[in-house]
Specification:
alpha/beta, 8-stranded parallel β-barrel, 4-stranded antiparallel beta sheet, 14 strands, globular
Amino acid sequence: MKIDSEKYVPVLKWRQGEYQALFLLANEIKDSVVPLVIIPPREFDFEENKMKKTIHEHVETFPKRLKKKWSARLALIDTHESLEDERMDDGRLVIEYVLEETKSLGCEVVPVVGLKRRSLYLDSVKAFAAESGCGVALRVRLDELSNPTVSADVNALLKYLAVPWDNVDFIVDLGDPGNFQPYPVFAKVIAGAVSKIAGCKSSRSKVFVGTSLKLSEVKKPGATQPRHEWSLYKELRSELEKNMPAPSFGDYSIEAPDFAEGIDMRMVKPGGKIVYTTIDSWFIPKGGAFRTNPAQMIGHCNAIISSGHYIDRDYCKGDERIEDTANKVTNCGSLTTWKGVGVNHHITFVVRQIAKQYGT
């Protein structure tokens, strides 16, 4: 299925906060979203000095949960690289199991491939794409895009997969490039690199993903950070439309591109915060350690409501929870609660922001 330019493609790590945020979106918002879901790496139990779950235990819940949280809507499916060669208890590779089981449940999925994926993973995707006719989502990262051999590399991969360009969702993943400015210059560089990839113009969809959010730099009592990726996208869309159909916008919602691996959470005291998306920035109130003072969230919610950025409780479930917590109608939740609040608001906001670009 083609991902048209009015669709939004958030990259989600499929933790509880993310999939609950998806589930709680209004139906009209869901209809404009195509999530790129990454099955995360396993977590390590530092107290027991072993992985918390086996590969099978870690992955087996995914198909049914995707069906429950996202129904039969289109989703792009990727896995963390640590799962690439791992097998389930029945011997199937993780990606093979996930694609086959989600399809059997009636989910519409497209597998994500990349230039650095290993042969076992690619062979599983090739077999699934051939059987289902779903094509692939090809995710090319910024460092790969700038490689002089990228056109040859991309076309060699598609030839290996036996997937033609008109059945490819081409995703340029900028990650966090560090510096987005000046936007017109960066947009020309990206557009120029894309235009040099033979066949790319005829891909069924084009998506650009990136983020500039740096939560590690937010200190008490909070901060405002610009959404550089949104400003860049507007320039990039104008640049690309000179030669090809407009691309879709994607980002990492309110997360960093990388997974926080190898961190003993017993030693970490995350601060309470809410990431609230606005027209061209994030408003982020933040306090001290959440675990010792969850009541701080009441103040953070009130800070958002009084900031001039707050919309209203009917805007989305995230905004509803902010107002209810501010008014002490409900409890102060958990860190997962507030991740979900931020993601739910962000997706809703971006979908409506994109719609305004097209006058809908």
